[in-house]
Amino acid sequence: MSKSSKKSASLARKARIEEMRRAEKARERRGRILTIAVSTVIVAGLVGFGAYYVDNANDKDERQQAAAKKPVKGEKSWNAKKLTQNHVAKSVSYPMNPPVGGDHDQAWMTCDGSVYTKAIPNENAVHSLEHGAVWITYNDKAADADVKTLADKVAKTPYTLMSPVRDQAGALMLSAWGKQLTVEKASDPRVQQFLTKYVQGAQTPEPGAACTNGVDAD
């Protein structure tokens, strides 16, 4: 091969190599652009999801607050001013069953999501209501599945307690200070409405008072 031919071949090789380098750089640029674009979409999606999640959480809070302001259909109410709050060391005859207020024992029932399988003293339970607890009770008419469902709910909810009251009128009853609701099923939406409204609700005579370190029956 002549010198001129070798030189031409060398130039051609260099040209191909240069072209390959340019093509490779172009691919790298496209890759970087694609990566940036995908990352931007992902970040935007995460930001959008975060905003959506926050909005949904805010909406849920607003719905719960709105529900807490509405009266619970079918609930009974007693004049809070007529429900005395004296500490006594004797049994009390209450005008309603289960009681929703009145004189009571100086010790409260532990009501930090407490599920009692045996009857508890009314006088201690009423003291728990004074602290803002909701007391869920049931009798033999209540279905076992409903009792279990409510027990699971109570166990997850501070300022609540649950126990059997065999001689109460309704199968399932929810009591707060001065308030009471009777339901037939645990699935009744008023159960959650009652809890939302009255667990440490506006009716509480002593808001913020402890529900822990009280009397334990079981």
TrEMBL record:
Ranges that cross the membrane:
31-54
| Record bears the keyword Transmembrane helix | yes
Pfam families according to UniProt: DUF3105 (PF11303)
Q: Which InterPro entries match?
A: DUF3105
For this UniProt record, give its keywords in alphabetical order, as a comma-separated list. Membrane, Transmembrane, Transmembrane helix
How is this protein named in the record?
Answer: Membrane protein
* Species per Swiss-Prot/TrEMBL record: Streptomyces aurantiacus
